[in-house]
């Protein structure tokens, strides 16, 4: 039994991902046995008292709680970011559920940046959903064994990326990262001069993006697909690397391409908008 839910500032459910066990649990809470609890509106109504309680405790008493445990072994964990409440309801331990919730929050920051309202879009809802599904699937994707760690393969891949950087230009932007992933493992990374270093969380997030892409391409192999439905026609989108000292986020244009089975070529182009984002956030708070 599991549900991942995100509520906006007026307690509307903007993202939901649940299984049948969760719906059965919700039906047991519904006083009207014939009522329909399979849609966002009814689930939001049933959970509204919990969300409101969490907000009131935080706003009026400065006393937030991050989890609840019920007698039937149901665990509820909370977090709040930019007036949105993130919630996981499951039968996991509090620590495991909280870890998964933090991953969900990081995914939202990664694909939405500071604009969480993008989750109202079905495209972003699907994108977040496939990232959540791909979390933890890395070890199940073959391809890296016998390649990653071999200095010769890594050196050859790095030389290929350097050569590609001379042919692939990203005007008007001067800072970019080229990567090769084998399965879910990073084989080589080449960054242009002056580019900010990618952090370990950034590389993990890119790995999960590659896992999601490979899972989709594998499932649709017979149809010879080229486009990921949650990205643009060129398999590109704006993602946000983890915040550093220079600003709250660093928007990058991400491009994915499968150049051979299980081998993904990734381009991250720094759009140099972090100062604009920081200025907008500052002006919105004053």
Automatic annotation (TrEMBL):
One Pfam assignment: Fuz_longin_1
Protein name: FUZ/MON1/HPS1 first Longin domain-containing protein
Domain FUZ/MON1/HPS1 first Longin: 3-119
GO molecular function, one term: guanyl-nucleotide exchange factor activity
GO CC term, one of those recorded: BLOC-3 complex
InterPro entries assigned: FUZ/MON1/HPS1_longin_1, HPS1
GO biological process: vesicle-mediated transport
Organism: Pectinophora gossypiella (Cotton pink bollworm)
């Amino acid at each position: 039994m599991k549900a991942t839910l995100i509520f906006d500032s007026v307690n509307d459910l903007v993202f939901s991902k649940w299984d049948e066990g969760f719906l059965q649990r919700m039906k047991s809470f519904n006083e009207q046995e014939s009522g329909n609890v399979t849609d966002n509106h009814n689930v939001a109504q049933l959970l509204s008292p919990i969300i409101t309680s969490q907000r009131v405790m935080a706003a009026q008493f400065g006393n937030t709680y991050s989890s609840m445990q019920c007698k039937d072994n149901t665990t509820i964990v909370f977090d709040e970011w930019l007036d949105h409440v993130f919630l996981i309801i499951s039968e996991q331990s509090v620590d495991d559920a909280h870890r998964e919730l933090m991953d969900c929050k990081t995914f939202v920051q990664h694909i939405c940046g500071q604009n969480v309202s993008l989750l109202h879009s079905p495209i972003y809802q699907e994108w977040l959903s496939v990232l959540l599904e791909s979390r933890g699937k890395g070890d199940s994707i073959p391809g890296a064994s016998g390649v990653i760690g071999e200095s010769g393969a890594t050196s050859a891949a790095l030389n290929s990326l350097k050569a590609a950087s001379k042919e692939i230009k990203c005007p008007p932007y001067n800072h970019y990262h080229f990567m090769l992933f084998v399965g879910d493992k990073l084989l080589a990374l080449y960054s242009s001069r002056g580019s900010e270093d990618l952090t370990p969380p950034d590389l993990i997030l890119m790995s999960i993006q590659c896992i999601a892409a490979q899972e989709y391409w594998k499932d649709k192999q017979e149809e010879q697909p080229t486009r990921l439905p949650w990205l643009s026609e060129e398999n590109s989108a704006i993602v946000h690397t983890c915040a550093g000292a220079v600003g709250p986020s660093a928007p990058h244009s991400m491009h994915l391409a499968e150049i051979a089975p299980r081998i993904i070529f990734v381009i991250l182009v720094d759009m140099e908008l972090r100062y604009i984002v920081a200025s907008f956030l500052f002006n919105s708070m004053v």
